[in-house]
Every structure is written in C-alpha cells, then in structure tokens.
Amino acid sequence: MRTQVAIVGAGPAGLLLGALLHRAGVANVIVEQRSADYVLGRIRAGVLEQVTVDLLHEAGVASRLQAEGLPHDGFELSFGAERLRIDLRALTGRRVTVYGQTEVTRDLMAHRAAAGLATVYEAEQVQPQGWDGDRPRLTWRQGGAEQRLDADFIAGCDGFHGVCRATLPAAALRTFEKVYPFGWLGVLADTPPVNHELIYGRSERGFTLASMRSATRSRYYLQCPLDDRPEAWSDEAFWAELARRLPPDAAAQLVTGASIEKSIAPLRSFVAEPMRFGRLFLAGDAAHIVPPTGAKGLNLAAADVGLLARALAEHYGGSDAGIDHYSARALARVWKAERFSWWFTSLMHRFPDTGEFGARLQRAEFDYLCGSTAAQTALAENYVGLPLGA
Ligand code: FAS
Ligand code: PHB
C-alpha cells in the first residue's frame, strides 16, 4: 500500500487529522491497534474550545455537534459553600461547547467511513520506519501476515502510550514531566446535572467536578488517592461523597442513579520536544499530556492537527514553511496550556503537602478571583482557549 500521510492512531487527533487532510486533497491512511468499538468505549473529555469546534466545521464533521452540542457561556468555581461564576462570554466574548469526546470520535469515524477513507483497525505490532530518511513507512501484522504502508510522512497520533514517540532515539527527545499525587474517579450516569453549567469545586475533602454530556446525562469526578480503585466505590458511596463535597445548594439538586461508567484517571503534566523528527510528526497525547482540570487535552490535540494538516497541505502546494515551523508553533501553545492546567490543578486540589499555609493560599487565590475582573479574565481567556497561533 502507498499513501501520502500515514497516521498512527484513530483517536480524536488521528481521525481529525485524516478528515482535515482529506478536505485538503491529501491522501491518508489510519492504522489503529484497537477495534473501533474499543476506541469509542473510552469515556474522556467533555468540553470543546471554539478552536476545536471551528476545526470540526472545517473538516465537515460538525452537523451533530451543531444540533446536540451545549453552548456554555460560563462555569463556576466553588470553595466550600461559596460559588463564583466565571462569565466567559462577558469576559472574553467567547464560549465553550459541551459535547463528549466519544461523540466527536463517533462523528469522525462516521465521516471517514462515508468518505471511503482507509482505516486499519486491530493492527498488531505497528512500527514506524524510515522516518529519518525519504522513504517513511509503517509495518504491522494482521491475520498472521506482515503488512506495509509506504508514505511521504508519518503522523504519530498514537497517544501517551503509543509507539511513535517510543521509537525515537532518546537523545533526540527532551521530555518534561510532573506526576500529581492523586487521580480522578469519574462516573457517568443518566441523571440530570446538578447545575446548567460546570462546577469545579474545592472542599476540605478534596476536588470535585460536576459536568455533563446532556440535560439528562451527568459526568462527575472526585479527587481520589492514586492507589484507589473504581471497584472499591459502590454507586451509593460515590453519590454520598459527592454530596459531601459539592456546595450545599448544589448538593440539594443532586439526582442519583446507576452509574453507566466508572473509572479512575491519573493526572500528569508531560511534554516531549520537539514534535517533528524528519518525516515523522507527533500530535496530541503522543506529544503532551495535561491534567484534565483545564479541559485542555482533547483541545490541544485538535489544535496540533489543525496546524499539522495546514502544514502538510502547504507542502503539497510547494512550501515547507509550515512543516518546518510546526513543532515550534505547536509547542508555544502547548506550554501555555500546560501552565494553565497546572495552575488550575494546583488551585483546586488538596495535595499531601498543602498544609494549613497552602490551604490559606488557595483560599486567598479564590477570594482574589471573586474580587478581580482582571483575574477572572485571565482565567476565562485560558479556559475558552488561546487563539491557534498564540
Ligand atoms: P488518544 O490516546 O485518544 O488516541 C490514541 C490512539 O492511538 C488510541 O486509539 C490508541 O489505541 C492508538 N494507539 C496507541 N498505540 C498504538 C500503536 N502502537 N499502534 C496503533 N495505534 C495505537 N481531556 C480533556 O480535555 N478532558 C478530560 O476530562 C479528559 N479525561 C481523560 C481521561 C483519561 C482516562 C485519559 C487517558 C485522557 C483524558 N483526557 C481528557 C485527555 C484525552 O481526552 C486526550 O487528550 C485525547 O484522547 C487525545 O487524543 P489523541 O491524541 O488522539 O490520543
Ligand atoms: C468532562 O465533562 O469529562 C470534563 C469537563 C471538564 C474538564 C474535565 C472533564 O475540565
């Protein structure tokens, strides 16, 4: 097989890159190690920045998002019983859209199938090769036979545990990492959300997030110890702890029900530099990870592939300026999102070493936000997402 761009990974980064390249007339094939159902079964992000919404429109994959996405003009912070609304629309003129990553992935998969684009699922032992020369290619095994895909470029959209970054020589890569001493226990339930907008909460007992997927489907998170396990939490125990941590007037609105998904995600900040190696490009979680506090992971992946798709299309138009500047441009925006996600996580969580002094500092930051339009604007403009070229 031969194509112009070989994409490793059929998560949101790989699928959106494939759709944008197809729109630009650039041929591409996606090679994914899991089944489509497995990819769809992962419950992850829930909030889309306008940059992501615009890219999905550009890719021609936004009709269901347009119909079912929930535009949100603000969100709330709570400290104990106190609540502060951050008015995104008034402070930045922009908003975010609540639409689950699972639905984004489903729409991208449907678009790809309808366009008749090649996607190889359940590929085993995928291996990028030749990316440091002029004959890049992917090999993999399927049905007991070796498969090969020759291409002009390889896009590593294979997530944090993928093969593309792992294939690179250690000396070629600089990595930066911070691992947080807690995780998020997430529950999805077909119950109405406690509030019409998201509430990020800091209680004495730890962080909570009250989010949603629709007016009838809620998504909640509790900060939990790293060694905690989803099976250690009955639904009743989860709802009782959530009610203890939510601000009382929100807890009074809580409708409980059977969980339809329960999982624990670790929190990490991670960046690999650079994001280009000859004819291999990294995008999305393959290159960087943020704690989900700032709702940046999926949105950074979309921004990366928005830059990469334009750069590759320019290459076929005769200019290599885009691919030559891809890594620096992507990383400039990635690091600003890393800073914001770290700051927001540090503000809203109980750390083992927070102590009384640290708790007072977190409270002082919340009080400052309550009284400062400038502070709220800084928070709002990072939350809605910085412009693509920022
Ligand atoms: P993905 O990891 O989504 O996709 C990579 C794909 O590559 C996968 O399908 C994988 O199977 C495939 N792959 C891996 N190795 C391969 C190989 N060797 N060969 C072929 N294919 C291979 N972000 C938010 O904004 N908000 C959240 O609440 C949030 N919650 C999260 C919870 C969890 C548990 C995790 C892990 C992440 C969460 N994220 C969240 C971040 C998440 O949404 C990512 O940012 C997003 O999935 C990034 O998309 P991709 O870069 O496509 O990576
Ligand atoms: C979610 O709804 O899954 C969600 C929303 C906002 C976040 C993290 C997760 O910051």
Explained architecture:
This protein has 390 residues and is of the alpha+beta class. The chain has a domain at 5-45 and 100-177 and 269-349: FAD/NAD(P)-binding domain. 38% of the residues lie in helices and 28% in strands. The protein contains 13 helices and 20 strands. The protein has an eight-stranded mixed sheet with strand order 6-5-14-15-16-13-17-20. A six-stranded mixed sheet has the order 8-2-1-12-19-18. A hairpin with a 7-residue loop joins β9 (124-129) and β10 (137-142). It is globular. The model has no long low-confidence stretch (mean pLDDT 97). P-hydroxybenzoic acid (PHB) binds next to β15.
Question: How are the SSEs ordered, and which strands pair?
Answer:
Blueprint: E1 5-8, H1 12-23, E2 28-31, H2 36-41, E3 47-48, H3 50-58, H4 63-68, E4 70-72, E5 74-79, E6 82-87, H5 88-92, E7 96-98, H6 101-114, E8 119-120, E9 124-129, E10 137-142, E11 145-150, E12 153-156, H7 164-167, E13 174-189, E14 199-203, E15 206-212, E16 218-224, H8 235-245, H9 248-251, E17 259-273, E18 276-277, E19 280-282, E20 288-289, H10 297-316, H11 321-348, H12 355-371, H13 373-383
Parallel strand pairs: 1-2, 1-12, 2-8, 5-14, 12-19
Antiparallel strand pairs: 3-7, 4-7, 5-6, 9-10, 10-11, 13-16, 13-17, 14-15, 15-16, 17-20, 18-19
Bound molecules: arabino-flavin-adenine dinucleotide (FAS) and P-hydroxybenzoic acid.
Arabino-flavin-adenine dinucleotide (FAS) binds at residues 8-14, 31-34, 39, 44-46, 101, 123, 126, 157-159, 162-163, 265, 284-285, 292, 295-298, 301.
